[in-house]
Amino acid sequence: MKILFISMPSIHAIRWIENLKECDHELYWYDVLNRGELKIFPAVTQYYSKNSRKVTYLKGEYFLSKRFPSLYNYLKKFLEVTPNEVLESIINEIKPDCIHSFEMQACSYPILKTMKKHPNIKWMYSCWGNDLY
Asked: Would you say 28 and 4 are in contact if contact means Cβ atoms under 8 Å apart?
């Protein structure tokens, strides 16, 4: 079974993944926030992007993000690679049997569009305490 974990680098994700260390599953991990790799056993294939831009940084982006955040959030999909685009490419590459996402707001909600396109993939969600507020 191929299992793709989606989260940010955290001790919670590491503990979940390490529980499957002795199993014969193929384990993958995608850092939806692009914060870097997990310090975990080498059998886990990790996906994270150091360069998540479609175009080079444009002068004035920071100003726009602070003064006009709703406009900047709309334009962001043209400037940066979205988590949905990355997840779509990972799904096409590894064809996972199951996707397990952690934390709702930052890690699970950003991939909702892609998950709706793949209803045949089992999707599990684990919350980290008070995710539902």
From this structure: yes
